Amino acid sequence: MVFEAAGAGEAFLLARVLFGLVLAFTGVNHLLDPDGMIAYSRAKGIPAAEVLVPATGVQLIAGGIGIALGAFPVVAAGAVAVFLLVATPTMHDFWAVPEEQQQSEMTSFLKNTALLGGALAFLALGGVEWPYAVGVGLF
């Protein structure tokens, strides 16, 4: 089993909780500052931003909580991965912004890329029984 080493289950639980709660908090921000998020999304050329911003907020909250709890892990990690796969190059296109914005956008792009890697790792482990998980899921 993947988590047989001493402390591996606890370390994996901590990783899930930290990763999931950061994503859920990000989703909450989509809902707490919809005007700012919608304006930013529109400036990036996102169609139907007034619908997509709250929808992606809910997607991040559900995915983050699902990962943290180990509930529906494949769906949760997949939802996060899809969000990051789409949002990262569209929202943080550092190559297409004025020079004074490039560093900030590149930092966000790289952060999201790292988060995407984490989401893909959790997705890859979705079929494995996660230690300390709620124990519900499709796989």
UniProtKB/TrEMBL annotation:
Superkingdom classification of source: Archaea
Transmembrane segments: 12-32, 60-88, 109-133
Family matches, as Pfam families: DoxX
The protein, known as: Putative membrane protein, DoxD family
Annotated localization: Membrane
Topology class, membrane: Multi-pass membrane protein
Keyword Transmembrane helix appears in the UniProt entry: yes
Keywords per UniProt: Membrane, Transmembrane, Transmembrane helix
GO cellular component: membrane
InterPro entries documented for this protein: DoxX (IPR032808)
